[in-house]
Amino acid sequence: MESEIIEIMNNAFKIIEMCDGHICSRCLGRNFSKTVQGDGNLERGEYVRHLLSENAPEVSSEVSSEVSKDLVSAGSPNPCYVCNGLLDEIDATENSTTDKIIKRIDESKIEFSNFLVGCRVDPEILNREKEIHDALDLDVENIKKEINREIGKDLSIRLDREVEFDNPHLVVMVDFKNENIELQTNPLFIEGRYRKLVRGIPQTKWPCTACKGRGCERCNYTGKMYLETVEEFISKDALEMTNGTSAKFHGAGREDIDVKMLGSGRPFVLEIKEPHIRSIDLEELENRVNQHAEGKVEVLNLKFVGKNRRSQIKTSSTDTYKVYRALVQTEGDVAKEDLEPLKSLDVIKQRTPIRVSHRRADKIRTRHVKNLEFKRLDSNLFELLIHCEGGLYIKELISGDEDRTNPSVSQVIGIPAVCKKLDVMEVNI
Ligand SMILES: [Zn+2]
Ligand SMILES: [Zn+2]
Question: 3-class DSSP state for residue 163?
Fold first, then answer.
């Protein structure tokens, strides 16, 4: 008899002895996943059992004599010492674990095209399994891996959906200890651009500073500083269409409340948590948002993206290129030639502005003005079109921010100037 077969039988005897004869074929076969060929651990276990019953009497001298062969013949699979019948539930022909999962999925009405199965099992089961692995010095897969794979295979066939390891739409978590099936839906990500056509709307939700969002007299019990936000205009319809639980708005930077966002708009990614429906019609979403937010906010270029876009879009830095249009008012009259020095604005050293210093680290940034055009509108009023690197604070570029921005518009024209209106014309990332 080949030495490999003898080793398999020897190990099988030891395992069966440790289980006092009670071990199911899957739990037995799992110990031989690296040494016995076969289509799954059930087949391996049955093969090993067959091997023992065929050969045990005649090879008694070759296999460990300390092992009582009675254990093998008397060994009944149930209740399994290792899994305590858990794996029978998976293989059951009626009311199996897969049956229960499918019922849960049907009830949930969650739409998905791929999934992944995970499980929680009683730590006692894992301990008993480890006992065997340690005693025989085995390096084989554990029961959780087998459960996940077997249910995954079964579900995939019965639902005609793919198993996806990296970024599944749905995670089916089977908790055997508490007899519970949890369905976790991974977020859906939609990228697009928005235009903000009016001033006075913040990009994202802004809780009332007096009550911190709980609702008070000052905010008329809305909990909000502003009733309308770009975020809410977009997420409201998206949540309705996907039937998600909540949405998170990730913008590629943000403009101030009093600043319009025009041109081709600002990129954003909308993250929808626990969507029930993923395959929504983005053109319809676009139309709905643009109808509800008409004249205020507009979305365009919507598309589905992976979750990596969420962080990519937030890395706003000097890589981004922006174009602003500013209406500038000066304290005194300026002649046309007084504006000529504006052409010299190039490298700007900007210390964190006073107005954001409470929430941003105090440091000096260097940013480039790439191009600047100006148009005199009145004796104390002119318009600027500024092409610059991302991260340059435009209001401070104009005022000088008490010399914290250097050089500035006020400085080069030699007269204090302030930004009266600001529009973002382009955001390129
Ligand atoms: Zn078992
Ligand atoms: Zn309030």
Answer: strand
